[in-house]
Amino acid sequence: QVQLVESGGGLVQAGGSLRLSCAASGTIFSINVMGWYRQGPGKQRELVAFINSVGGESTNYADSVKGRFTISRDNAENTVYLQMNSLKPEDTDVYYCYGDVKLRDGGPNLSYWGQGTQVTVSS
């Protein structure tokens, strides 16, 4: 089985920074895409950023976080990071990491999610 465990959430003042981490463990052959979503009460889960290691490394960000957030990954450790700078109160949400994981060579990509970590930005 595969587990994704997030850490690094918390309470920060507007303009501050936080760094989220998400480590994947278990029976993993490879992880192509890793990323972060966020969701607040009564809201749909929205994509924050993802990083794709297939064919080189490419990243993609939601318009709302471009220039403020940076996603990176350590493939050797199956870990993805989200550096969040210049945080705003509207960034307050539960942040979830996910990974598209191959359990074996030639197997399908299976999506796994972390349990979520709360980020609260005070004004």
Structure description:
- This protein is mainly β.
- Helix content is 0%, strand content 59%.
- The protein has no helices and eleven strands.
- Strands 2, 4, 5, 6, 9, 10 and 11 form a seven-stranded mixed sheet that branches.
Summarize the structure.
The chain is mainly β.
Question: Can you tag this structure with a few keywords?
Answer:
single chain, 123 residues, mainly beta, seven-stranded mixed β-sheet, four-stranded antiparallel β-sheet, 11 strands, 0% helix, elongated
Question: Which residues sit in consecutive blocks of at least 5 with pLDDT less than 50?
Answer: none
**Helix and strand succession?**
EEEEEEEEEEE
The helix/strand class is: mainly beta
How much of the residues is beta strand, in percent? over 45%
Query: Main beta sheet: strand number and arrangement?
Result: 7 strands, mixed
The dominant shape is elongated
**Distance N to C terminus:** 40 Å
| Overall residue-averaged pLDDT value | 95
